[in-house]
């Protein structure tokens, strides 16, 4: 069983990535903050007794350091693995990673950055291209009631009914991008409030799954790989998530891998994605029998604190969600240095 085999270890993977990245918080260097998170995540994953395959990596769009798609990680991927990995007990998993989700947030000391990953058995995660994705996330009460094909106005009315709140009480997170100008205006005209973010929509989608966050929906277009990670979390939480790939650079307006709509369609076909306009549910993007999601805060956010350093170590706040045990565990960890002079409790 995936959770019982590597559940604790994936928490340590995101914790180590968060600690490494947090050391560069506020230094204005997003690439280094990303690079050290990648290396820390890779190093810890390679100590786990598993055969893992990266199906969603990070960094392709920004030419940043990567855990590249197709990379194999884990002790059981080594050449001499037969000496210490029992084939009958071998855990083969697919992994989606974003070691530093919100690199700009770390670089400029802003809230909401996380180290995140999702895992499932082999074939259990959608191998999304590094395109963009139209997304709709909402709380469990609205699952299968709101719909990405409906207008924002219609979805706000449905959300209002599902949550027993007036539209004026609803808060929708939207990334601050030119492509969202009309969407933002429509949400405001409908009476709801908009929380604009510069980066980090995984955190926003995740927050929709918990009551008390004062975030009731995520709408708009963001990165497709992060959409799969968000879907994995929402699948485990029972929340609503839908995603639709955006392959036309004219829609995104801020640049897209691939120079043309036609070229991007050819790329999708080469990946056996024959219906480019398909709307995917959380259960289709994270279809595995067992799905695990893990995140650790780098800078403080809605759900988790950021990394806090003290003379003697560091403290992390993480979250691991499992479809297997139906649990969402918040994990508060003190990481002790070799020669601690104090252990910070608060």
SSE topology:
Blueprint (H helix, E strand, L loop, with lengths): L1 H21 L7 H16 L5 E6 L15 E2 L18 E10 L1 H5 L6 E8 L10 E7 L13 H12 L7 E5 L5 H10 L2 E5 L3 H8 L8 E7 H14 L2 E7 L2 H4 L8 H10 L8 E3 H4 L5 E7 L10 E3 L2 E10 L4 E10 L10
Parallel strand pairs: 1-3, 6-7, 6-8
Antiparallel strand pairs: 1-2, 3-4, 4-11, 5-8, 5-9, 9-10, 11-13, 12-13, 13-14
Walkthrough of the structure:
This protein has 346 residues and is of the alpha+beta class. The protein folds into 2 domains: 2-122 and 289-336, Fructose-1,6-Bisphosphatase, subunit A, domain 1 (Fructose-1,6-Bisphosphatase, Chain A, domain 1, 2-Layer Sandwich); 132-285, D-Maltodextrin-Binding Protein, domain 2. The protein is 30% helix and 26% strand. It is built from 10 helices and 14 strands. It has helices at 2-22, 30-45, 103-107, 152-163, 181-190, 201-208, 224-237, 249-252, 261-270, 282-285; strands spanning 51-56, 72-73, 92-101, 114-121, 132-138, 171-175, 193-197, 217-223, 240-246, 279-281, 291-297, 308-310, 313-322, 327-336. Strands 1, 2, 3, 4, 11, 12, 13 and 14 form an 8-stranded mixed beta sheet that branches. A 6-stranded mixed beta sheet has the order 7-6-8-5-9-10, with helices on both faces. Helix 1 packs antiparallel against helix 2 (30-45) and helix 6 packs parallel to helix 7. It is globular and about 60 Å long.
Q: Within the CATH hierarchy, at the fold level, what is the topology of the largest domain?
A: Fructose-1,6-Bisphosphatase, Chain A, domain 1
Examine the secondary-structure arrangement and name the CATH architecture of the largest domain: 2-Layer Sandwich
Class of secondary structure makeup: alpha+beta
Q: Strand count, sense and closure of the main sheet? A: 8 strands, mixed
**Rg, Å, rounded:** 20 Å
Work out the helicity level: 25-40%
Helical segment count: 10
What's the CATH class label of the largest domain?
Answer: Alpha Beta
What is the N-to-C succession of helices and strands? Answer: HHEEEHEEHEHEHEHEHHEHEEEE
Number of individual domains: 2
> Ends: how far apart?
35 Å
Whole-number mean pLDDT? 91
Shape: globular
- Tally of DSSP β-strands: 14
């Amino acid at each position: 069983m995936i959770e019982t085999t590597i559940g604790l270890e994936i928490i340590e993977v995101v914790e180590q990535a968060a600690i490494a990245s947090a050391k560069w918080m506020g230094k204005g260097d997003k690439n280094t903050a990303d690079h050290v998170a990648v290396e820390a995540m890779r190093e810890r994953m390679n100590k786990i007794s598993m055969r893992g395959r990266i199906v969603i990596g990070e960094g392709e769009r920004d030419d940043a350091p990567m855990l590249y798609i197709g990379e194999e990680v884990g002790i059981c991927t080594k050449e001499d693995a037969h000496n210490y990995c029992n084939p009958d007990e071998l855990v083969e998993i697919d992994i989606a990673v974003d070691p530093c989700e919100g690199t700009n947030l770390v670089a400029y000391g802003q809230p909401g950055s996380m180290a995140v990953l999702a895992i499932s058995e082999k074939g259990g995660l959608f191998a999304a291209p590094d395109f963009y994705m139209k997304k709709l996330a909402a709380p469990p009460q609205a699952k299968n009631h709101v719909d990405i094909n409906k207008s924002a106005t219609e979805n706000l009315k449905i959300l209002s009914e599902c949550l027993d709140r007036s539209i004026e009480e609803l808060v929708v997170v939207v990334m601050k991008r030119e492509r969202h100008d009309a969407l933002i205006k429509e949400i405001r005209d409908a009476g709801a409030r908009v929380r604009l973010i510069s980066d980090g929509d995984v955190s926003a989608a995740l927050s929709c799954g918990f009551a008390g966050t004062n975030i009731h929906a995520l709408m708009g277009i963001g990165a497709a790989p992060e959409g799969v990670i968000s879907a994995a979390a929402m699948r485990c939480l029972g929340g609503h998530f839908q995603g639709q790939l955006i392959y036309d650079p004219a829609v995104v307006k801020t640049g897209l891998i691939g120079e043309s709509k036609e070229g991007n369609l050819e790329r999708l076909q080469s990946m056996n994605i024959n219906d480019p306009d398909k709307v995917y549910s959380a259960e289709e993007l994270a279809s595995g029998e067992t799905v695990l999601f893990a995140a650790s805060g780098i800078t403080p956010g809605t759900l988790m604190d950021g990394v806090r350093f003290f003379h003697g170590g560091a403290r992390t706040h993480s979250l691991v969600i499992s479809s297997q045990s139906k649990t969402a565990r918040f994990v508060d960890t003190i990481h002790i240095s070799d020669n601690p002079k104090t252990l910070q409790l608060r």
